[in-house]
Each structure stands twice: as C-alpha cells, then as structure tokens.
Design brief:
Layout (H helix, E strand, L loop, with lengths): L1 H5 L3 H10 L5 H13 L11 H10 L6 E2 L4 H4 L4 E4 L6 E3 L6 E3 L3 E4 H8 L3 H11 L12 H11 L2 H8 L7 H9 L16 H10 L5 H19 L12
Parallel strand pairs: 1-2
Antiparallel strand pairs: 2-5, 3-4
Amino acid sequence: MGESKAEGRIEDARKAGQASSRLTSDMINESKKLLTALGIPVIQAPSEGEALAAQMARDGLVWASASQDNDSLLYNCPRMIRNLSISGRRKVARSKTYKTVHPEVIDLDFNLKLLGITREQLVDIAILVGTDYNEKVPRVGPKTALKLVKQYGSLETIESEKGMELKFPYVEIREIFLNPPILKMEKVEWPDPDSDEIKRILCREHDFSEDRIQNTLSRLSKTLDELHGSTKQSALSDFF
C-alpha cells in the first residue's frame, strides 16, 4: 500500500486498504440485516462512511458523527464525537490492558477559528502529515504543518515559494475530502425493532440462546414502554 501511495496511484491505494480488511461481504450484509431488525437504519455510503456521516450531520439528519477517525472533520462534519463507548474503556493497542475513556465532542468551526485556518487549509495540513491516500511529508509533524499552512496559505504556495517538493497528487487528494459524492436524503426512517427477525438471525442462524435473547428483548420493550408511558413498542431512535 505504501508503494501505491508513493507513486500517487490513488485508486490502487484505496483498493489495497480495502483488501487488508478482515470483513467479508457476507459479514457486512449480515450485520446490515441485524441492525435493520433492531430498528437501526442502515444507509450505504456512496464513498467513505465518514463522508456520508459528515453530510448527514451538516444536513441536520443527525446531531453529530461518532468516530475515532479525524477524517470526519476533513469531510466537513460540524460535530464529531470521540470515545463513544458503552463500557467507558478501550483496549490499548498491542496490549492486554484497558484505559478509561470519556466522550469528547469536537466542534469543527470552533476549532478552525481557534487555529485561525479554513477547512481547506485543515485538509492541506492533514495531507502534509499523511492521509489514507498519501504518506506524510518527511520531518513534518502537526505543529510544523500548521505553521507552514498559516505562513504560506496552501500546498501550491508551499511548493512554489518554499521549494518543498510534494511527490503525490495533492490536488486530487484534496478534492476527495472537499467534494465527496453526495447521497440525497430528506429524512432517516427509524422502524420498530422486529423481535422475530432478531431471534431468527441470532438464534436460528448463529445458535444464540433463545431464552437469553428473549429476556433481553423483553427488558428492552419494558424499558421503552416505561420511558414513554405507552404499551406500544418504541423505536430505538427514542433513546437518542
């Protein structure tokens, strides 16, 4: 993948990254079915998932995007939530230990004003320190990248006036973040959970204990009913 990036072959780099994933198409399709049965809408992104989540946040379909990937901000997500975890902890990489984490909301416009840069300049800074589509520029870290972009304004000016040679198609990479494919949506539907379908997927196809799944579904239904003072089963969207 590194060789693909160095040669500027964007599509090759993208395919190599996807090929390294352990997820299979069957696993993905099965996950979609289970999420739908749980009453959680599934939307297929036309490109990167972070790009679609950012679009949905901008359009007011969701309040924020939950992600650990700062690419969400490059795709113009107004608010990104990091460390959204039910357990409140996360496993340390290459270790058997865990660390406590707390949810963190990052406001894009606030941080751009704080840094004194535009979103386009933020993308240029990210390109200097390395993205999914290019390796980082040697001896350039986040602080140096910020300083360079604030001083020169853009990667084009950095190349022409500072004489720094960027050996990758940064204009094309910048375009990926600034103008990703758009999916037209007016609203997101949140259906009621389908208990029978949930049990079919988990119990019949994957041998989960039917008693255990039924007990969990009963607790979910009871909790939702108590929250809303209704005997009608509520959608999972009411939790958010």
